[in-house]
Amino acid sequence: MTDELNETLQKIKNITGVENVVLIQKDGLPIASAGVWFSKDEVFAVASSTCAIFGVARLIHGDFKYLLMESETSKVFLASLPKDSNYFLAVTTAPRVNLAALFIEMKDNLSRVSYLLKQHLEGNLPPLRSFSSEETQRVLQGFSVSETDNTRYSVTRSIVSLDRTRALGLRSLLRQVHDSIPNISTVFLALSGGVRVSLDGFTDDRLAAMSFALHDASERVIRTLRNSSLQTVLCETENMRHFIYAVPNGVFSLYVDKDSQKLGLMRLLLKHYIEESRRLLDTVSLVKPSVPDELKELLLSGGPGKSLLMVGREK
């Protein structure tokens, strides 16, 4: 069976531009691979990194079929196996891979991989790993290199401040997107500090937060694997496509019916609007977040020796 599985993965690897293909358990354990690695460590690096974004994507889009992360130097493609949520394929490619050929080859081989797993590996794979709260804390403590308990973190993500002119300009741009692409479910900008710009006056907090979280998790994966900056995330489900584009201090998010336009045409239409969004957001003012003294006093009143923990990410 191993030969059959490796042969199936190799068919995907043979597509021009594809570099590596890995079959992964949802807990990050690599099952089989085909590619150009020189060490097993690199296989585990891809598996452990992509399982994190796979979990986020399933949390947001439970029935997602695939997720595509694009940067200047590469693409990372995650595909969920049909009717088997415990495994997925991770494919890393060169920046100019033929996406159409990749999608066709993936469609033809995902069912084959799922069949092989069900017929030959059921009961023979290591059990999916899970951790209790205490075990999770011990794992996290293992990453600590501080000799004291006085480590402090600070918030470094700035808050976007929009004046009326720029806000109206961004809303006008969103209106153009909405009018030029049919069957849009929602389109909005989710900016740092919780600022949201949409056509409805406000955007569902959950949609904005999920879009920001999905982009942030994808960016970490791309930086880990390729040391590159994420540009685009595309997540497709049975009925919908979710586009997320990086813009200064935030993300552009678009939910659209999957069958409303051909994928290539839609990406071409969006390119102009994303560039205009970036141009407008490049000129906005930024404000460093602060915690009022009254809130600090409340949070610090938990007991002696307690400290306020504020976690952020250095840009």
Description:
There is one protein chain. This protein has eight helices and twelve strands. Helix 5 runs antiparallel to helix 7. The protein has two domains: 120 residues, Beta-Lactamase (2-Layer Sandwich); 129 residues, Beta-Lactamase, CATH 3.30.450. The relative contact order is 0.13. A hairpin with a 4-residue loop joins strand 1 and strand 2. The strands form two sheets. Strands 2-1-5-4-3-9-10-11-7-8 form a ten-stranded antiparallel β-sheet, sandwiched between helices. The chain has a two-stranded antiparallel sheet with strand order 6-12.
Question: Descriptors for this entry?
Answer:
315 residues; globular; Beta-Lactamase; alpha+beta; 25% strand; ten-stranded antiparallel beta sheet; two-stranded antiparallel ribbon
